[in-house]
Each structure stands twice: as C-alpha cells, then as structure tokens.
Amino acid sequence: MARTFGWLLPLLLLLVFCCCAQSFLQRKTRGEVMGKPRKNASVSWFTQKLNHFGKKKHGYWLQKYYVNYNFYKPGGPVFLMIEGNDPASIEWITRNFTWITYAQRLGALCILLEHRFYGDSQPTRDMSTENLRRYLNSRQAVADIAEFQTVIAQSMKLTENKWVVFGGGYGGALAVWSRIKHPNLFAAAVSSSAMIQAKLNFNEYFEVIYKTVGTRNRECLKAMKEAYGFIMTTLLLPDYHGRLIFDYKFCEPLTIKSEMDQLFVVEKLMLIFATIVQSNMNRNSVGIMGEMSIDELCETMTDTSLGSPYHRYARITNTILNNRGYPCYPASYKENVEENSNISLERNKLTRGRQWLYQRCNEFGWFYTTDLKNRSFTGLPTRYYVKRCSDVFGPKFNYDSMVQGVMSTNKYYGGLNVTGSKIIFSNGSNDPWCHLGITKDISADLRAVVIKGQTFCDDMLQPQDTDSAELKQAREKIFQILKKWLRE
What we know:
- Strand 5 (163-168), helix 6 and strand 6 (188-192) form a beta-alpha-beta unit.
- 47% of the residues lie in helices and 12% in strands.
- It is an alpha/beta fold.
- It has helices at 8-29, 91-94, 98-106, 129-135, 138-155, 170-181, 204-216, 218-235, 241-248, 259-279, 294-301, 309-324, 333-341, 345-348, 353-364, 382-393, 399-413, 469-487, and strands at residues 41-49, 60-68, 78-82, 109-113, 163-168, 188-192, 199-201, 365-367, 423-428, 446-451.
- Helix 8 (218-235) crosses helix 12 and helix 13 crosses helix 16 (382-393).
- The protein has an eight-stranded mixed sheet with strand order 1-2-4-3-5-6-9-10, with helices on both faces. Strands 7-8 form a two-stranded parallel ribbon.
C-alpha cells in the first residue's frame, strides 16, 4: 500500500506550495508594499476590478502605477496624480513638475495611476467594440480610482493621511469627479484644464485658437485664412492633388473621392495649426508635440519672401514633420478608419487613437467643429465626426446616440453645475478647453484660477525662470489654497 500511494505526499506538498504562492501574489498585487519603502520612484501593479457596476463578477486585471517616496514625511499627505488618455510616464513622477514641487514643500507621498485601456493597463485581451462598450468609460475609471485609494490606503497604512487627487485635461476631469463622487476618500482635488462638461459640437475650440493668434498678430491670422482657402479650393481639383502631395508632404496616394476624404485632409491641416497654438512650444511637457511657438508660426506666416500664404504654411507643416521624424502626413480617410478599427492590443496600447475616439464617440463628444455663426473658418461640420464614429464602431453610433451619451455624462457628473468642496480649477486664458471648465470662483471651497496668456495645462509643467509672472503667481496661489485646506 505504501508503494501504491507513495506519490500522494509530493502531490499534497505541491498543492500547498501553489496555494501559498497564489496567496502571496494576490496580496502583493492588491497593493501591499513588501518590506520598507524605497527612497525612489518605482513601478507597481494593482489588481483592479474589471467591472465595478455589474452584478456578476467579471474578474480582475493589473493596473499600472508609480510611487515616489523621496519627499514623504510620516503623516504627510498623499498626492495621487491621475493619468488620462495617455500612457502613464515615469517622467511625471520623477521630473520637477509642479505637483512634485508641492510634494517637496508638504512632505507628500506621490503616486501616479494609469487609466484603464491606456498604456500597459489593459483589462481585456483585445480592444473589440464589445470590450470597450462594457469596460471603457469614465465611470469605471472613477471607480478604479476609488478602489485603488481604498486598498492602497489600507495596505500601506495611509488611512489617516489626507489624500489629494491631481490631474490635467481629461485626467483633471477625473480628479474633479473623484472628489465629487468620493469626498470620504479624497480631501481635495487640484485640476488643470479640466473639461468637466461634455459637448458634442465643441465649436469654441477653433474660435479660441484663431482669436489667440489674431490678438497677437492680425496679419498672421489673415495669412492663415488665405492659406486654408487656397487648400480647400485645391482639394476640389484632382489635377492639382499632385501639387498638394509635393508641397505638404502627404503620403501617396491622395485619394479625394468623397466629402469624408476631403474633410480628413482639412482636419489634419487645421489640427497642425491648432496644436502649435495650444501647446505654444511647451518643450518641457510630457506627450505634447510643441516644436514651434505661436510667435515662430506667425513670423513664418507673415514672411512674404517665402511666397504666398499657401507656401508659407507648407513651410510650417514641413518643419513640424521633420521635427517629428515622419516621412509624410497620412492623408487617407479609409486607412485612418482601418487603423482605428484595429482591435489588436499590442497595436493600440502604444497609442490612444481607438480608445480615445471611442470615449469621445460614446460619452464626451469634444469634437473640433466649425459649426458656429460668424465663424472665422469653415470646413469641419459635426456630421464628419458622427460619420467617423459610425465607420469605426458601427451604425449604433449615430447623431442621436452621441447626443444621448453627452447628455448622460453631464447628468451623471453635473457638467458645469459643480457641487462639493475643496476643488481647484486652473485654466489658461488662451486655452480652448477653458470653455468646458470652471473659470470663476463658485464658493470659498470651489476655486477658479485663470492664468492670463497661458494655454493647456501650463501650470502643471516644470517651473522655469522664463515663466510669466502670472504663471508663477498662479502656481503659488494654488499651493497656498491647498496648504490651507490640508490644515483644516
């Protein structure tokens, strides 16, 4: 009998080992920090719930986060930075960005959390439309933030510390919504350029861009209008498409067989201009292609020695292309739809195209249209974006469904009708996104900081000696408000 069951003891030992190993991994990935805190920035993984709202259990996935202990003093606050629609970069937690300077002054622990479906934080095996429908939306993301805070606070013994949630852009909106929905978890929120109102037809975007340029240099804006007018005319003349390919370095072939083909090229050229104005050469930012300032843009656009405005803008687009190291500008609407329809995980986690387009089609809108009376430019109607959503994600995405999605988002979060307390909203006066945020104080505990002459998320970037006095004052004002709240 001993020989018959001699295999039983080794099997039992193996089962015990496997159970212990699984228990260890579960404890570790639920946020426990094993051993003493490390005095540097490190990457970790958090076992996150897949679905926070479903009745049935749908399992877990690993969410990426970074921790920086360098400035932490026992009992100090915990700063949680929320990455929005970009992969989380360790630079945000190691470089001397504004929130890091606040942490140095307040002895805070810094944590950077990556958003589901972006970067390495992938909850499903692919990005099929069905997976995105079930698991990719801001409500799941806010629930992720709350779950993360609850578990990490317990496992790292930080339940008595005051947590402050930070974010910029969409991440800033998530920070605001996290404070509103979970005031018991977060003592305060600091947001920059937070677009907290969903809006399908975001027609103010280009208007602010053009107003910013026109205020600095009217001749520059006039030249831009002439350049776009000539480009629009040329797109309607197939015999001149070869000229556009050569002058603007479009990838061949330039196929203009439908209105969507034409509008795709127009959008590409308009966004190059808009990105320059919005970023205004923010070279020390993360994820922003700011290779040219507004002044450099206008210097080229008003230089008559370079030829017509059409040729001057071609000079600008070529400069941007060379700086980015690309051979040409994609100009095929069909290929763009195919690219955004690709559900491959490896392909999409390196970019944000498919998942961010889905969120905009499904709950936010925020489409840069020119549907506005007395508009400075024409060429990008709302129907262009509606058709793109439908072509990528299916016919269920139509104008009515997108309007309903925007209305649902504003109803759930409140839009610009903000409730709650201890939230800071900072915006640059030249930032188009300020139209979707708070630019006036609501109360003593809901504060707005508008920074004259600044653009998107400028106050979040690394402080420089060359920063304007307004920007320096705004950073200090935000710090003093936050410091006061943490003492209360």
